C-alpha cells in the first residue's frame, strides 16, 4: 500500500515544519512500513545545524522513524488524530546512528511492529540513504485517546 503526503496527514497530527514523512512506499497492515523523507536544504533546522556544514539532527531522524511507525500503527487500526487518537513517543533503546544525513538525501524509514500490548507499541526501526545504513533503534510509542472538541 502506498500513501502520498495528503494521505499521511490523515494519520499524523504533525504539520510543516515538523511533518517528516513525505511518502509511504509499502505497508503491511499490523506488521511493517517503508516510507521516505526527502531532505532538502530548505529544512528550517539547517539554518542552525550547521550553517557551514548542514547535517540533519539525529533526534529528527529518530522523530521521522517515530512518525513512520505512527502511520503504521494508526493505519493498521484505522484510528486517526481527528477522532481523538495520538501516539506519544515514550522511549528508544539501542540507538545507533552511523552516517550523517545531508541535503539532497532521501532518507528511507522502515519500522516493524515487535509487540503491541495494552496500547504500548514497540517497533524495530531502520533508517538508510540508498544502500547506506544511517541508523537502527527500537522505539516505543503509547496510544492515547484524547477528548475531541
Characterize the structure shown.
The protein has 149 residues and is of the alpha+beta class. It has a single domain, classed as Hotdog Thioesterase (Thiol Ester Dehydrase, Chain A), CATH 3.10.129.10. Helix content is 18%, strand content 42%. It contains two helices and six strands. It has helices at 5-11, 58-77, and strands spanning 23-28, 32-38, 85-97, 106-117, 120-129, 132-145. A six-stranded antiparallel β-sheet has the order 1-2-4-5-6-3, covered by helices on one side. The termini are far apart.
Largest sheet descriptor = 6 strands, antiparallel
Radius of gyration: 15 Å
Mean pLDDT: 96
How many strands in all? 6
Helix fraction bin: 10-25%
> Which class of secondary structure composition applies to the elements?
alpha+beta
Low-confidence stretches: none
Number of helices: 2
Function: Involved in unsaturated fatty acids biosynthesis. Catalyzes the dehydration of short chain beta-hydroxyacyl-ACPs and long chain saturated and unsaturated beta-hydroxyacyl-ACPs.
InterPro entries: FabA_FabZ (IPR013114), FabZ (IPR010084), HotDog_dom_sf (IPR029069)
GO biological process, one term: fatty acid biosynthetic process
Enzyme class: lyase
Offer a concise description of the structure.
The chain is of the alpha+beta class. It starts with a helix and ends with a strand.
Please give a handful of descriptors for the protein shown.
18% helix; Thiol Ester Dehydrase, Chain A; alpha+beta; 149 residues
Amino acid at each position: 500500500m502506498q500513501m502520498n503526503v495528503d494521505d499521511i496527514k490523515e494519520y499524523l497530527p504533525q504539520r510543516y515544519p515538523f511533518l517528516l514523512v513525505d511518502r509511504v512506499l509499502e505497508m503491511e497492515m499490523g506488521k511493517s512500513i517503508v516510507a521516505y523523507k526527502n531532505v532538502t536544504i530548505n529544512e528550517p533546522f539547517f539554518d542552525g545545524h550547521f550553517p557551514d556544514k548542514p547535517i540533519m539532527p539525529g533526534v529528527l531522524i529518530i522523530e521521522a522513524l517515530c512518525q513512520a511507525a505512527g502511520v503504521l500503527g494508526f493505519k493498521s487500526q484505522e484510528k486517526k488524530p481527528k477522532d481523538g487518537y495520538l501516539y506519544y513517543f515514550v522511549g528508544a533503546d539501542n540507538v545507533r546512528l552511523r552516517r550523517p544525513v545531508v541535503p539532497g538525501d532521501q532518507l528511507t524509514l522502515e519500522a516493524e511492529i515487535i509487540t503491541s500490548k495494552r496500547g504500548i507499541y514497540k517497533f524495530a526501526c531502520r533508517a538508510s540513504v540508498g544502500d547506506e545504513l544511517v541508523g537502527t533503534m527500537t522505539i516505543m510509542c503509547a496510544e492515547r485517546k484524547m477528548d475531541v472538541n
